[in-house]
Amino acid sequence: EAGVAQSPRYKIIEKRQSVAFWCNPISGHATLYWYQQILGQGPKLLIQFQNNGVVDDSQLPKDRFSAERLKGVDSTLKIQPAKLEDSAVYLCASSYTSGGAEAYEQYFGPGTRLTVT
Amino acid sequence: AQSVAQPEDQVNVAEGNPLTVKCTYSVSGNPYLFWYVQYPNRGLQFLLKYITGDNLVKGSYGFEAEFNKSQTSFHLKKPSALVSDSALYFCAVRDIARAKTNAGKSTFGDGTTLTVKP
Question: How many CB atoms neighbour CB B8 within 10 A?
């Protein structure tokens, strides 16, 4: 079974530039998550999709961050314009969804390490 | 609001000794609890989870965790540590009531670095 794929693995940009990250979840996983992991902290959820609908985006800085999952499979997270404090690892994860109580574990991709200078 | 605390930033043990990585949580209702491990330059990997039933949960690589509702804890344990267990460990919690509507997000602790010395 192929894992969660993410690209690019590393990205260096200057502040005020834009950047996009791509994620392809495990086949059959309806739920997709984007997390921000700042060095020394645990992952913080930015946005959660079920199929192509947003379930939770309460912690997404919507003035600069956007995400989409148009066909309910792969997803793109964009930052525009980037700030220095956006330097972090951006993790994508997916999980199975049964339509009931969601006790399923998440499968994570390798992450994209973003450095904003 | 739900939260997770991992009180130790670093745990050091000698190979062959038992290890414990601590986790306490706070949710308004009943929890789903998870442990994940992160090796350098790799994504998080699922180790084990507590949903319901037996308070002692067994997972991958010989790890186990004990759910204690009265102490709101879910400590990760292993009877005999290996050097290869050295990694960053994260505890996560999800509120069951909100999970049933698929609206409940998982909250992660800030991680504990486990170092096992030969």
Answer: 13
Pairing state of beta strands B87-95 and B31-38? Answer: antiparallel
Q: Which residue has the tokens 């509120």?
A: B95
A57-64 mean pLDDT: 94
Quick: pLDDT tens for A18-51. Answer: 999 999 999 989 899 999 999 999 999 999 998 8
Q: Residue A32 in 3-state DSSP?
A: strand
State what percent of residues in chain A have pLDDT above 70: 94
- Tell whether the torsion through CA atoms of A60, A102, B42 and A73 is positive or negative: negative
- End-to-end CA distance of chain A: give it in Å, rounded: 37
Nearest to B110 among A41, A45, A100 (CB): A41
d(CA B82, CA B87): 11
HSE of A21 in the Cβ direction (CA atoms, 13 Å)?
Answer: 29
A90 CB neighbours in chain B (<8 A) are none
Using alpha carbons only, what angle is made at residue A56 by residues B109 and B47, rounded to the nearest 5 degrees?
35
Measured in angstroms, the CA of B45 and the nearest CA of chain A are apart by 7
B20: enclosing H helix or E strand: strand B19-21
